[in-house]
């Protein structure tokens, strides 16, 4: 069942004793208890032990508070995500993708703020763009064209985010007891009418599930395509290189 939107009441603070950082910290604490969807200004006031007007003094509406939370979450996320390095691009990009997924899957609040809500302030958006620029520059140095590097990193990013969001929505549906958890839950698979599907799913494969197996398969497909592009560029460079006299 979904968690009820309740907050433990603290001893009331003195007027003017709270600041924006206190409010943001408290909002993260409360979101861990009730989730981002159920976070509200009155609940936060109760959690912090202040009148709701003290919160509105700094954040006029919930969206402003969520923007501040997202800014902080994005900075923490960028700091925790490893760089892509040109000299070992495939392994570092793979590690980059795996860490992104692990970070978001392990922190539902981070997922809800950055991936599902997707509302960033100009400062946070600039930070995100700078990190993407670094990754693309490394892939160009590794041998991809700027367009290929962009498409490769974009494909990895979409793959990671899609996998995480699907898993997060599955968790939300299960918590609220709303709808099927996976595509397989809506399908009838039996050995007589769908022998191949039955054979494979019996071995632990899942159709359309955001699980580790499907994530790794998709990631390796993207990395393999990028590696073939780099090899093609190397062969082309050798053919066009001037012969020594």
From TrEMBL:
Record keyword Transcription present: yes
The protein's name in its UniProt record: TetR family transcriptional regulator
Listed PANTHER family: HTH-TYPE TRANSCRIPTIONAL REGULATOR RUTR, HTH-TYPE TRANSCRIPTIONAL REPRESSOR FATR
Organism lineage: Bacteria, Bacillati, Actinomycetota, Actinomycetes, Mycobacteriales
Sorted UniProt keywords: DNA-binding, Transcription, Transcription regulation
InterPro entries, sorted: DNA-bd_HTH_TetR-type_CS, Homeodomain-like_sf, HTH-type_TetR-like_transc_reg, HTH_TetR, Repressor_TetR_C, Tet_transcr_reg_TetR-rel_C_sf
UniProt cross-references to Pfam families, sorted A to Z: TetR_C_1 (PF02909), TetR_N (PF00440)
Organism: Mycolicibacterium pulveris (Mycobacterium pulveris)
GO MF assignments: DNA-binding transcription factor activity; transcription cis-regulatory region binding
Source domain of life: Bacteria
Coiled-coil region list: none
GO terms of biological process kind: negative regulation of DNA-templated transcription
Domain HTH tetR-type: 17-77
């Amino acid at each position: 069942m979904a968690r009820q939107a309740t907050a433990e009441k603290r001893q009331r603070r003195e007027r003017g004793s709270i600041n924006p950082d206190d409010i943001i910290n408290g909002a993260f604490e409360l979101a861990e208890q009730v989730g981002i969807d159920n976070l509200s200004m009155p609940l936060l006031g109760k959690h912090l032990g202040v009148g709701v007007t003290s919160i509105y003094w700094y954040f006029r509406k919930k969206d402003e508070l969520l923007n501040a939370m997202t800014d902080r979450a994005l900075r923490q996320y960028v700091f925790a995500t490893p760089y892509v390095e040109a000299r070992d691009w495939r392994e570092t990009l793979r590690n980059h993708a795996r860490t992104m997924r692990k970070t978001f899957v392990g922190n539902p609040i981070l997922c809800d703020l950055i991936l599902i809500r997707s509302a960033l302030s100009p400062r946070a958006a600039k930070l995100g763009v700078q990190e993407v620029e670094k990754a693309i520059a490394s892939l160009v140095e590794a041998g991809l064209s700027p367009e290929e590097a962009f498409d490769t990193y974009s494909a990895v990013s979409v793959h990671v985010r899609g996998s995480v969001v699907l898993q997060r929505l599955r968790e939300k549906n299960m918590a609220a007891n709303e709808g099927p958890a996976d595509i397989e839950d809506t399908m009838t698979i039996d050995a007589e009418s769908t022998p191949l599907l039955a054979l494979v799913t019996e071995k632990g494969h899942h159709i359309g599930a955001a699980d580790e197996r499907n994530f790794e398969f998709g990631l390796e497909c993207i990395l393999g395509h990028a590696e073939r592009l780099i090899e093609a560029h190397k062969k082309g460079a050798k053919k066009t290189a001037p012969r020594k006299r």
